[in-house]
Amino acid sequence: MSYPVYPQPAPPTVPVRPAGPGKPTIGIVAFIASVSAFVIGGVGIWLSGFMIGRLVRATEIPEIVSGLQDDAWVLAQEQALQAIDRSIGAFVVLITAWVLHMALAAWGLIQGIVATAMNRGRAWGIIAIVIALLSWTVLAWFTQEAILSGIMGNIPFMG
Question: What one-character DSSP code corresponds to residue 119?
Fold first, then answer.
């Protein structure tokens, strides 16, 4: 049994060239997303540390002292509940800052990889990848500093 032989197609007359580098828009957007993740995370963490430092307000000190001396525990208890509310608010701000950082950094990382692979803003994409991958280490260090500074701000009021 024999099979028919089909003619081979003719080679193309115009050689196919790979596409050159396109507009760097994808890389620039990845860079902006990575930098935004770093800035928004840093501001949120700073705000959280500032809120922790404001658990006990300086204007409440005379009220707390008089409340403890006059057996007016209702006032002291109300102020303690307000301090707990402020600490919960600081925790919520801290978690929100980290979640926003994570989402924007992941976006910048993925889009930076795409920009680098597609050669559409390769340099911007590489910078975005580096910022997205390393910014969390700086923010982790900054988180410790912000929380400890906030706690240290309350030490004179604890006795």
Answer: T
pLDDT digits (tens, 9 = 90+) for 35-49: 999 999 999 999 998
- Is residue 147 exposed (0-12), middle (13-18) or buried (19+ Cβ within 10 Å)? middle
CB of 115 within 8 A of CB of 30? yes
**Structure pTM?**
0.73
Contact indicator for 140, 41 with CB cutoff of 8 Å: no
Token pair 């950094």: residue: 105
Give pairs for 112-118: CB < 8 Å, separation 24+: 112/27, 112/30, 112/31, 112/34, 114/26, 114/30, 115/24, 115/26, 115/27, 115/30, 116/27, 118/22, 118/26
Q: What is the DSSP letter of 55?
A: S
Element (H, E) at 89: helix 73-118
Helices (H), 119-156: 122-154
Tokens of 20: 């050159």
φ, ψ for residue 82 (rounded to 5)? -65, -40
